[in-house]
Amino acid sequence: MTAVEASEAGYEIEKLLALHPKGFDLSLDRITRLLAALGNPQDRLPPIIHVAGTNGKGSVTAFSRAVLEAAGLSVHVHTSPHLVNWHERYRLGVKGGKGRLVSDPVLADAVRRVAEANGGEKITVFEILTAVTFVLFAEHPADVAIIEVGLGGRFDATNVITRPAVSVIMPISLDHQAYLGDRVELIAAEKAGIMKRGCSVVIGQQEEEGVRDVLTSTAERLGCPMSVYGQDFMAHEEFGRLVYQDERGLSDLPLPKLPGRHQYANAAAAIRAVRAAGFDVPDAAIERGVAGVEWPGRLQRLAGGKLGHYGPQDAEIWVDGGHNPGAGQVIAEAMANFEERESRPLFLIIGMISTKDQLGYFRAFLDLAEQVFTVPIRGSDAGLDPVALAQDAASVGFEASAVSSVAEALTVIANLVDEDPMPPRILIGGSLYLVGDVLADNGTPPK
């Protein structure tokens, strides 16, 4: 049995999955009804940092939490999806220390109570789990809650929040087109739906001018105090340090613990969000938070664990759950930066689900990777057949092979580079579901 199946909370959630339809049904009617039956716990939360975006929302959540906790504040955090265990979605704040994942008995009890309050009415499991977030966060005191949007924004179940301390919109690109629209401007309009009249808004780095225009015009229409990356705040590397700038001046900070240049803008958005939410944290706390931030499954290096034994000796093995072309571009840029510092042959081990743009993801790595190995995904019914995925990789110019597992791919790579004096760099990614499988198999689930 997996860790999820073995837990009491996991058992309760699996029962709900069998009872209610899978997937998303974007509407606020069901969650509003359920929360009313529960006494509207969403109205009894501490100040809320509400985060949306296609890419980077998990990172800005992690940075915000790290900075606030470094300042001694207790921070509740809701994220989705989880990688290995359902409990990862709910981190409860601890005064003066780092928050902890909710315990199994507490989560199981909350799930049972919310399901009972629903009374068997039609609903999605994500809506039930979102209601669980509000119940847990209302019943456990904390100084601040960071709540990540699940899908979109306007009709996401988390969008029953009426007065966030700040709404944060991170980079937007094409993803979930079936639900959100087939143009980035349409997707931006959906994500802008988390903005509330008169409430502060932070807009992270946006590559598309049209996206930025949609977001800023929405904020202006709603009378939201607005901060825009590149205009009101920014960050860059200088002499091996991170320089953050806003109207208060310059802050000389350590480079983020999370690798990749894209994390400079994510760290900047978090600092600005914390300040816009009304938390005047000292510079020392910002330094500690940026230097100590952790975010599992996002450019995470596998150090130790079971899977490393299958791969080449001294190989660098990275996992990342980015799964759309925008994420592929920033991950590929990070791999290119690694290559500049230390040249190693790069191999990709990729698994994806059918709703993603496989070709766009693969194109980001052209001229970087030596070869692609495609693998199945256990954690999703929508996982692509590795043979078809290998054909997609080949169609954009890669040498690609389908294999049965990550362990087999690592073994094949070990045989390929047996005579090579430089150990390879290996990226395992394409799906958060795959990353969850890898961390479970490796024996290193998030904590």
TrEMBL record:
Gene3D superfamilies, sorted: Mur ligase, C-terminal domain, Mur-like, catalytic domain
Protein keywords: ATP-binding, Ligase, Magnesium, Metal-binding, Nucleotide-binding
Domain Mur ligase central stretches: 51-273
Record GO terms (molecular function): ATP binding; dihydrofolate synthase activity; metal ion binding; tetrahydrofolylpolyglutamate synthase activity
Reaction it catalyzes: (6S)-5,6,7,8-tetrahydrofolyl-(gamma-L-Glu)(n) + L-glutamate + ATP = (6S)-5,6,7,8-tetrahydrofolyl-(gamma-L-Glu)(n+1) + ADP + phosphate + H(+)
Cofactor list: Mg(2+)
GO CC list: cytoplasm
Source taxon at top rank: Bacteria
Known EC number: 6.3.2.17
Family, as annotated: Belongs to the folylpolyglutamate synthase family.
NCBIfam families: folC
PANTHER family given in the database record: DIHYDROFOLATE SYNTHETASE-RELATED, FOLYLPOLYGLUTAMATE SYNTHASE-RELATED
Name the record gives this protein: tetrahydrofolate synthase
